[in-house]
Write a structure and sequence with these properties.
five-stranded mixed beta sheet; alpha+beta; Helix Hairpins; 3 domains
Length: about 450
């Protein structure tokens, strides 16, 4: 047996909306029809009782004044004693003792009579004649056709409820079709959309206009991601070609060389190139993970300790490096692996271009903590500062020619800082070289 929920989900939105609206309308209208059918009888009897009580009240005043009551509006008025026997010269009324008791109490009663007899409705009240005798003044009205009216009225109400539900369903079908027609046009336009194209926006301020705008924004982001992927793939292929070609050439030289010293030197060059290739691949992998949204959990990281550890990892043959911690500790909200990657890349970049010294400063502010790296190298020209964090970007100056890097280090720094809500900027150091400032959000250890 098919799953009804699965079958229901496979129906069109227009059909589901129409079906739900029709069922709800039918249920509501049928309930109202049944309630109205139950109220038809009491409503009819209430109208009859009002007329009967008005006639009884008029007749009672006549009895109390000693005059004979007259028939009012076609209603038959009788005067009885308190036992229910007639005192107006007419025949005995078709009332039982229980009916008489209810009438004396001011209640209206219905006398059904035999099966083929027309039921009658009675109302009465007790009046005092001038001689002091108690009289029961009653009025009756035949309920001819009342049962048929109640039955037919109930059926009519049910029929109207069904017709109303059908009308609601048809109206919903037409309205939803008109409302969803622009969505269908949008879907067909999206299917035939060329690369780089955009959906025509309806220009209205309704949900369809907002949907078209959001879809165009999504298409723009997809195009941007595709362009970045194509550019990244081309740059990566270009960057990988150089170390691979160099390794191949040096390996061929080493194989052809008969001199052991030359072969050893060639192997050392191959090792350098393989290390460069490994660094490049690690950077590509890190960037790919960042593009995929893989972000490690944030935790408090003490930057002064991390900076000193990064300096120790560089080794003794690097330029003179000094750590200037203006605070005893500075806690940032990040991941230890991210902080290590940022510091290693910034310090390696500074060491490659520094003439003699690198100064690393750690500062703490109210909402941010900063790491500032200054070198005394050639610096970065202002026109290149906006692009140094792009992937594989190289400036055509002395700093770029002396680099020997992969072109990914600063891109990794920018990506790691950006996804934590921080910022990294480049400027000019007091020693004339480059200054890189990295800011992370501060973590309050007391919280």
């Amino acid at each position: 047996m098919k799953d009804p929920r699965r079958w229901w989900r496979r129906r069109s939105l227009r059909l589901r909306i129409t079906a739900v609206a029709t069922v709800v309308a039918a249920a509501v209208l049928l309930v109202l029809a049944l309630l109205a059918g139950r109220l038809v009888g009491p409503w009819l009897l209430g109208g009859v009782d009002t007329d009967l009580r008005a006639a009884v009240s008029t007749a009672a005043r006549a009895v109390e004044s000693g005059t004979a009551p007259s028939t009012s509006d076609g209603l038959r008025v009788r005067v009885l004693d308190t036992a229910g026997d007639p005192v107006d010269g007419g025949g005995p009324p078709a009332l039982g003792d229980a009916h008489v008791g209810d009438l004396k109490a001011g209640l209206a009663v219905t006398f059904e009579g035999p099966d083929d007899a027309v039921p009658t409705r009675w109302a009465g009240t007790v009046a005092t004649a001038p001689d002091g005798a108690q009289r029961l003044v009653v009025a009756e009205d035949p309920l001819a056709g009342a049962s048929a009216v109640i039955a037919d009225g109930g059926m009519l109400l049910v029929g109207l409820a069904v017709a109303g539900a059908v009308l609601v369903g048809a109206t919903t079908w037409l309205v939803t079709g008109a409302a969803l027609r622009p969505v269908g046009r949008m879907r067909r336009s999206l299917r035939a959309l060329p690369s780089g194209g955009r959906l025509p926006e309806p220009g209205s301020a309704d949900e369809l206009g907002a949907l078209a705008a959001e879809l165009n924004d999504l298409l723009a982001r997809y195009d941007e991601v595709g362009e970045r992927l194509r550019r990244f793939t081309g740059d990566a292929a270009h960057e990988l070609r150089s170390p691979v070609a160099s390794i191949r050439v040096q390996a061929e030289v080493g194989v052809a060389a008969s001199d052991g010293d030359l072969a050893q030197e060639t192997l050392a060059d191959i090792l350098v190139e393989t290390e460069r290739l490994s660094t490049l691949l690690d950077g590509l992998l890190t960037l790919a993970r960042a593009d995929a949204g893989e972000v490690p959990a944030a935790e408090p990281v003490e930057l002064v300790t991390e900076v000193r550890a990064a300096v120790e990892r560089l080794g003794a043959e690097e330029p003179d490096m000094r750590v200037s911690a203006l605070v005893p500790s500075a806690w940032a909200l990040a991941a230890p692996s991210e902080v290590e990657l940022v510091l290693d890349n910034l310090l390696r970049n500074a060491c490659r271009h520094a003439a003699s010294s690198v100064v690393v400063s750690v500062l703490a502010m109210r909402a941010w903590v900063r790491v500032v790296v200054d070198d005394d190298g050639p610096g970065i020209e202002p026109e290149h500062r906006g692009h140094v964090f792009d992937r594989f970007y190289r400036a055509s100056d002395d700093r770029a020619r002396s680099s020997g890097g992969t072109g990914l280090g600063l891109a990794l720094v920018a990506e790691a800082v950006r996804r934590r809500g921080g910022r990294v900027v480049v400027g000019e150091s007091p020693d004339g070289g480059a200054r890189f400032e990295v800011s992370w959000r501060r973590h309050d250890r007391r919280s």
